[in-house]
Here is the input.
Amino acid sequence: MKSTGSFVKDLKQTELERLWLELKSEQSQDARDKLILHFSPLVKYVAGRISANLPQNVESADLVSYGIFGLIDAIEKFDLSREIKFETYAMSRIKGAIIDELRALDWVPRSVRHRSKELENAYIVLENRFKRVPTDEEVAEELSISIKDLHNLLTQLSYTSVVALEELWAVGSDKEDKVSLIDTIEDHNSSDPSDIFELSEMKEILADAIDRLPEREKIVIALYYYESLTLREIGEVLSVTESRVSQLHTKAVIRLKAKLRQAKTYAGAD
Here is the structure.
């Protein structure tokens, strides 16, 4: 599989470093434009991965246009002193910009969002009841639907599962209080002990929730978010259809969201 670096146009490292220094020290518009052009293939790559989980009426070209704003924001805010690859930072910003715009458009029907919340609640109730991950049959019974209807629901909800795993790391009641993977890198210039403790606690909860996922869902999460495989590629690894991988991914995301929501509820009650 191609690395993210192979999606950007060739540009000598010395020239790239010169452009970054020119942008940050002189606010050069020319350097900014050249960096945008150089890294623009990242936008198409991220948009393509997100579009795989969206209905056909959502145009890929629109996702690319939303992502460009994320790339521009990443270029303007990138800190050269932090020891991270720009591509890693930019992909997080691009993905965030696309998802924020999709949320603003509110293309997901309210009834679908309601069903998603019902499914989250079912997982919370059943896991508390059985002290283990519930089976599909148990979830279907809790929701008073058939297994076939549950699978259809998961397929329908897969269109809403475009949120990156790192965006599940909500650290406060306000919707802006979110932490992405890139934000977990230590910044020696600014640190708040209470924020660090809260983030550390949330990471432990998420790690534990992932560890408790059924084996196949855990594999899907690892391959999709950490190895950047597409749903089709994961299907080839697991020898199942892309549709089945989509269902596994959706179940895993809903389980993790339910766990984090439950943790926040407990924290608020303390």
Summary: The radius of gyration is 20 Å. The chain has two domains: 4-105, 110-269. The chain has eleven helices and no strands.
